[in-house]
């Protein structure tokens, strides 16, 4: 799915031209995509970790290759070795970096719940983003052309770049090499054995640690190579990581996690779909790709060539009783806080009031995600979709119908709830990583609609002028409005948790087998919970929009989804006060960080890592343990 | 009278292994029928086809004359079939009372309530059920910390919540001490007799089987090889042979 539309038309039937060229472009993209995806899938096969940072390794590979090829000592060599030596060296270096990450961090979380693993690797994403900015700066980098592969060849009377042809060949070649590695070498055979049965390999007396580190080296080197090979093809930018990782997720999920031939097939399918989609539906290519993914997952929940994972899923945090009624002192504290929130604001300045209103929206956003994660036992890596749906519902009504705030606030939960019903219908059937990745993919559908459908959504420029009605325009009035709506939302969610519905939600989480055996339709319960959570997130999103006076696609991007996850995990999944505490702590931290340092992503990433490694049950959980002890 | 349950020609194969291979039998209302056989004979697989968890490769299951083959477990439950599992399955984060309450609320189709706290709903009925299985004193304990025998009793209480006409109990006493086994089965038998519930159960403890079953079926390698009154089955040389060969566990 590169941006490049190579091929210069000379003669022949113009329609046929375009088709052939697009098909070839698709093949070249498929190869690049397969290189990166094969790394991710190999790593997953052995370690069961979905490495979010894989895209960051890809980006690092490109930057490193750029430096080596155009600035390092090798660059002095010039010519063939200057270029290809640089590419290979970059790939090896990224392999070493991946191995290092495994030894220092990932090794410690092999037994953690899947969500924590995803988060830990997302923390690496943040760290790498800031490091890249620090070393290479924000400007795009352009690499040289590849020696021996400059210029174009003629195919059926069409001119086609040599380098693209080379890329087309490299995919199948790499698939073959990997096949040889896995079937003809001791290392590869051990890796395959480890994919099927970890205990058995341990029993053979093989040093598993070495094996795991080795697989991270291999997988990361593949990502690095994929990135480095983009050098002659497209500019190196600081957005490469997110762009590629989402595509790679789609490829490995469609192909089947852990399956190399599956990844190859899916890379072909997705790339060709994209290449031809551009011709037919230029506006919604991304939507098309994600829809195909959704359809594949519904028909074959474990991908085209994937197999159902064997053995019990890793331990989740489920199974803890709901905390009883809060102790008197805590309730007292809560009421005191509420009194403060009501009484103090008239004496606060404009800026604190804006912050408070933001916090209120985030608390509701976090509480809505907690509703499905805690009692529901489901994970969403794309909860921002519903926050954004609410925000855009308000903004679109304001922009196209000049609707007042009241209408927007009422429409937001319905619209977000409907989106939740639609997306949730697919997502709640799956569990674990698959569900997390599907929610992510749907959030990306929503994001690409907001981003690409410029006539309606304004694209990247967003929608401005989404202001509250006259009576709520003052910062103080808007704060009270936010407090009232978010407080109401959080309180309603709490009631639902204690009501039969919430109990059924926990029941299906604790034991799907027993739930089904006493007539509980777990799918329906999960689906409705998903939609309810989406509706609540929608209210939060619309308030956020009115508070800012504008909406941008960033209101439904991946980082915002991760914000929600972090708020919930920071607070602790198995407590009711968790999301409230977590949202305030997280939003406060981010706000302070952004003020103190430009490197807030780096610091935030390190904080997340610390959180995942040392406080897996969150703030409220830690408090509880202290009380219980 | 129409049998409560009719299984006809049930087959289930895993790969080439025919775990259940043409099993047919009937169960009269109020009857206690024991299904016995060595480990791996296919008893649990049979149960899973009867309550809808597995779809049979061939054969039919009728409940009160109605064909329910291929129905979802929750639909079969609504027809009045209660189930307990070989390895107990309860809701670990809920209290004992809430576990039973959940089953009652589901039976009353009140699970979608979002407003009223569940704590105030159907408490009396739940307590009555716990009373019936002798668990009333443990109502407020989280069921994650119960002793195994108590979990089995809790499962029984939950299985009774929809006023079943048929109970499917897969090894109801596995993992319990011998004294507890007889007590639990006596209790079950008394409840079933009083309410006219038919019970199909599997059991390894022959004392339990011969004390409580009205009739016994013997399954071996997926096929029914003997059946009849307990005394007759006990005297059957084939059964003795299977059991001496296969019950070494
Ligand atoms: N899910 C399954 N997949 C493959 N084989 C199975 C599965 N469940 C049961 N079996 C096999 O079917 C046979 C019967 O098992 P089961 O019904 O559990 O026996 P029992 O309950 O009588 O001990 C055994 O050989 C067992 O290994
Ligand atoms: Mg069994």
TrEMBL record, chain B:
Highest taxon, organism lineage: Bacteria
Keywords, ordered alphabetically: ATP-binding, Nucleotide-binding, Transport
GO cellular component, one term: plasma membrane
GO biological process assignments: D-alanine transmembrane transport; L-alanine transport; L-isoleucine import across plasma membrane; L-valine import across plasma membrane
GO MF, one example: ATP binding
InterPro entries: AAA+_ATPase, ABC_AA/LPS_Transport, ABC_transporter-like_ATP-bd, ABC_transporter-like_CS, BCA_ABC_TP_C, P-loop_NTPase
Keyword Transport: yes
Domain ABC transporter, chain residue ranges per copy: 5-246
Cytoplasm listed as a keyword: no
Cited SUPFAM superfamilies: P-loop containing nucleoside triphosphate hydrolases (SSF52540)
Protein name: ABC transporter ATP-binding protein
């Amino acid at each position: 799915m590169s941006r490049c539309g190579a091929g210069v038309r000379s003669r022949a039937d113009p329609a046929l031209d375009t088709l052939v060229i697009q098909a070839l472009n698709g093949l070249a993209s498929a190869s690049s995509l397969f290189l990166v995806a094969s790394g991710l899938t190999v790593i997953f096969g052995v370690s069961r970790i979905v490495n979010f940072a894989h895209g960051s390794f890809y980006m690092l590979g490109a930057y490193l290759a750029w430096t080596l090829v155009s600035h390092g000592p090798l660059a002095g060599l010039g010519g063939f070795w200057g270029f290809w030596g640089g590419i290979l060296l970059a790939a090896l270096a990224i392999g070493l970096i991946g191995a290092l990450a495994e030894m220092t961090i990932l090794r410690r979380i092999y037994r953690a719940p899947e969500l924590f693993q995803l988060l830990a690797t997302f923390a690496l994403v943040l760290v790498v983003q800031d490091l890249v900015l620090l070393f290479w700066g924000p400007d795009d980098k352009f690499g040289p052309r590849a020696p021996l592969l400059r210029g174009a060849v003629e195919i059926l009377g069409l001119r086609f770049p040599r380098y693209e042809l080379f890329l087309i060949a490299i995919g199948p070649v790499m698939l073959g090499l990997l096949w040889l590695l896995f079937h003809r070498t001791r290392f590869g055979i051990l890796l395959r054995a480890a994919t099927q049965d970890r205990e058995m390999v341990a029993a053979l007396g093989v040093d598993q640690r070495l094996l795991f580190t080795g697989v991270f080296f291999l997988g990361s080197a593949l990502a690095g190579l994929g990135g480095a090979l983009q050098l002659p093809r497209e500019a190196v930018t600081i957005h490469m990581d997110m762009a590629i990782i989402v595509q790679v997720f789609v490829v490995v999920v469609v192909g089947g996690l852990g399956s190399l031939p599956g990844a190859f097939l899916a890379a072909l399918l997705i790339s060709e779909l994209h290449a031809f989609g551009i011709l037919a539906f230029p506006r919604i290519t991304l939507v098309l790709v994600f829809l195909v993914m959704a359809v594949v997952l519904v028909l074959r929940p474990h991908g085209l060539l994937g197999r159902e994972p064997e053995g019990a899923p890793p331990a989740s945090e489920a199974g803890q009783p709901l905390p009883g009624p809060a102790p008197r002192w805590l309730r007292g504290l809560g009421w005191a806080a509420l009194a403060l929130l009501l009484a103090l604001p008239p004496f606060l300045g404009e800026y604190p009031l804006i912050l408070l209103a933001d916090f209120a929206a985030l608390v509701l956003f976090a509480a809505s995600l907690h509703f499905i994660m805690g009692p529901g036992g489901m994970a969403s890596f794309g909860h921002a979709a519903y926050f954004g749906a609410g925000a855009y519902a308000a903004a679109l009504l304001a922009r196209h119908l000049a609707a007042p705030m009241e209408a927007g606030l009422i429409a937001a939960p319905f619209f977000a709830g409907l989106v939740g019903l639609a997306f949730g219908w697919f997502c709640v059937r799956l569990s674990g990583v698959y569900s997390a990745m599907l929610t992510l993919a749907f959030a990306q559908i929503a994001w690409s609609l907001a981003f690409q459908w410029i006539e309606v959504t304004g694209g990247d420029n967003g929608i401005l002028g989404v202001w509250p009605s006259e009576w709520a325009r003052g910062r103080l009035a808007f704060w009270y409005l936010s407090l009232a709506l978010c407080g109401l939302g959080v309180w309603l969610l709490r009631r639902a948790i204690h009501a039969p519905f919430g109990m059924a939600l926990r029941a299906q989480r604790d034991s799907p087998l027993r739930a089904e055996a006493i007539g509980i339709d777990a799918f329906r319960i999960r689906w409705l919970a998903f939609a309810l959570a989406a509706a609540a997130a929608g209210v939060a999103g619309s308030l956020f929009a009115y508070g800012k006076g504008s909406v941008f696609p960033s209101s439904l991007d991946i980082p915002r989804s991760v914000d929600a996850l972090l708020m919930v995990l920071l607070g602790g999944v198995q407590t009711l006060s968790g999301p409230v505490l977590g949202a305030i702590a997280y939003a406060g931290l981010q706000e302070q960080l952004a003020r103190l340092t430009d490197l807030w992503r780096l610091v935030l990433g390190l904080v997340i890592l610390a959180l995942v490694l040392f406080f897996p049950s969150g703030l409220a959980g830690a408090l509880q343990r202290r009380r219980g002890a | 009278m129409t049998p409560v349950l009719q299984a006809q020609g049930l087959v289930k194969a895993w790969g080439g292994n025919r775990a259940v291979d043409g099993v047919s039998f009937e169960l009269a209302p109020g009857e206690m029928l024991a299904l016995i056989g060595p480990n791996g004979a296919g008893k649990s697989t049979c149960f899973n086809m009867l309550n809808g968890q597995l779809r049979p490769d061939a054969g039919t299951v009728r409940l009160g004359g109605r064909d329910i083959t291929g129905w979802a477990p929750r639909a079969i439950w609504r027809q009045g079939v209660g189930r307990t599992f070989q390895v107990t399955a309860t809701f670990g984060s809920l209290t004992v009372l809430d576990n039973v309450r959940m089953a009652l609320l589901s039976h009353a189709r009140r699970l979608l309530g979002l407003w009223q706290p569940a704590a105030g709903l159907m408490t009396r009925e739940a307590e009555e059920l716990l009373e019936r299985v002798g668990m009333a004193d443990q109502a407020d304990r989280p069921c994650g910390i119960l002793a195994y025998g108590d979990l089995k009793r809790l499962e029984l209480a939950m299985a009774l919540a929809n006023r079943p006409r048929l109970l499917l109990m897969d090894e109801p006493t596995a993992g319990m001490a011998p004294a507890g086994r007889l007590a639990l089965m006596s209790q079950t038998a008394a409840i079933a007799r009083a309410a006219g519930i038919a019970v199909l159960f599997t059991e390894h403890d022959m004392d339990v089987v011969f004390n409580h079953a009205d009739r016994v079926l013997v399954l071996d390698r997926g096929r029914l090889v003997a059946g009849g009154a307990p005394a007759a089955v006990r005297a059957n040389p084939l059964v003795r042979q299977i059991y001496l060969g296969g019950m070494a566990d």
